[in-house]
Amino acid sequence: MSKTAIAIFKGSQQMKGAIQEIQGGSLANSKISVMIRSQFIHQGEFREEIANELAYHPNDVSSDIFNSWLVQAPPFDVLNLGEVVVAGPLANELMHQAQGNGLVEVLVGYGLSEIRAKHYEQEVGAGHWLVLIQTDQEKINKLANTLSSYGGRDIEKWSTKIDHPIHRLG
């Protein structure tokens, strides 16, 4: 059974460390998503891979944030958040949803409660990094512990078959 974990990070280095360990430990394959408001990106030494095929219109953006360790969509606007940069499956879902829907509706679609989804939207609005990862039931606890060990907070894990979080950390 597939499980989902979500976490908030205050900085990109902690978030990147957690994701690299998760990828290195095969705790999640290609179901890793990251989101940040564009105005809060602190450019570093990274290079990105832009997935223009996810966008309705090609974009010539060079934000240089994901260093090809996640496939990133070009910056786009999301209801209640403004311009965001998103990598992973969450990008496609946000870009191709019905007009008038935002992050809250997408997170509810993943099985998170509306109250918690609004909390995560507020965190992204405040400039924090959102990480959303889907993995197998056998790996979810180790994945959540890895997120926590790198400074992830507001960590929740759940199954879309159950209408509430399995266990809330932090």
Task: Explain this structure.
The protein has 170 residues and is α+β, with helices and mostly antiparallel strands. The chain has a single domain (2-40, 79-169), classed as Alpha-Beta Plaits, CATH 3.30.70. It has 5 helices and 9 strands. It has helices at 12-24, 89-95, 103-109, 114-125, 140-149, and strands spanning 2-9, 32-37, 49-50, 71-72, 76-78, 82-87, 129-136, 153-159, 167-169. The strands form 2 sheets. Strands 5-6-2-7-1-8-9 form a 7-stranded antiparallel β-sheet, sandwiched between helices. Strands 3-4 form a two-stranded parallel sheet. A hairpin with a 7-residue loop joins strand 8 (153-159) and strand 9. The longest helix has 13 residues, at 12-24. The chain is globular, with a radius of gyration of 15 Å. The chain starts with a strand and ends with a strand. The model is unreliable at 43-64 and 164-170 (pLDDT under 50).
Number of strands: 9
Portion in helices: 25-40%
Number of helices: 5
How much strand?
25-35%
CATH class category label: Alpha Beta
Uncertain ranges: 43-64, 164-170
N-to-C CA distance: 24 Å
* Chain-averaged pLDDT: 81
What is the total number of structural domains? 1
Largest sheet: 7 strands, antiparallel
Compute the CA-based radius of gyration: 15 Å
Secondary-structure-derived class: alpha+beta
Do you know the CATH topology?
Alpha-Beta Plaits
Instruction: Return the string of H and E elements.
Output: EHEEEEEHHHEHEE
Instruction: Give, in spatial order, the strands making up the sheet with the most strands.
Output: 5-6-2-7-1-8-9
The coarse overall form would be globular
